[in-house]
Amino acid sequence: YWSMQWVRTPGKLTSELRKTLYALSQGIPDYLHQVYTRAQELAIELGKEQLDKEILQDAFDYRCQALHPTVAALKQGSDADVYAFRDLSHPWVEKSAQG
User: Fold this and answer.
1) pLDDT at residue number 81
2) Distance CA 92, CA 94 (A)
3) Cα gap 99→90, rounded to integer Å
4) Under 8 Å CB-to-CB from 7, ≥6 apart: which residues?
5) What is the CA angle 85-76-71, rounded to 5?
6) Kindly report the CA angle at 78 between 28 and 65, in degrees rounded to 5?
7) What pLDDT is attached to residue 86?
8) What does the pLDDT read at residue 98?
9) Which are the contacts of 24, defined by CB distance < 8 A and separation ≥ 6?
10) Other C-beta atoms within 10 Å of 26: how many?
């Protein structure tokens, strides 16, 4: 996914960037896509033309605000918090978790 960069100076995927992307998306592909896309747009708009940790964080903070509650719940690790978001759960998962 990282190889699909629109910026003029594509950078390498470092372990720091990988950790940042995971922290901001919690491993959910759609969230990764949203943060990654908004970060590229932001980098281009600001004339930076390269992705870095700060651009990724700013994109998440200011352009992906709808993701904040869900990502926070996933970071907490509480089943109850995660189940509050129906799109993160599935009936068979809930059923097996209940015993």
Assistant:
1) 72
2) 5
3) 15
4) 40, 43, 44, 48, 49, 50, 51
5) 50
6) 45
7) 65
8) 55
9) 31, 32, 35, 56, 57, 60, 64, 67, 71
10) 17
CA gap 39, 56 in Å, rounded = 5
The DSSP element (H or E) to which 46 belongs, if any, is helix 29-46
Q: Measured at the alpha carbon of residue 91, what is the angle toward residues 87 and 96, in degrees to the nearest 5?
A: 125
Predicted local distance difference test score (pLDDT) of residue 76: 87
- Please report where in the chains the tokens 């372990």 appear, as a residue: 15
Please state, as a whole number, how many other Cβ atoms lie within 10 Å of the Cβ of residue 40: 21
Q: What is the mean pLDDT of each run of 10 residues along the chain (99 residues)?
A: 91 97 95 97 95 98 94 82 65 52
Q: What pLDDT sits at residue 87?
A: 64
Give residue 72's identity as a one-letter amino acid code: A
User: pTM (2 decimals)?
Assistant: 0.82
Residue 84 dihedral angles phi and psi, to the nearest 5°: -65, -20
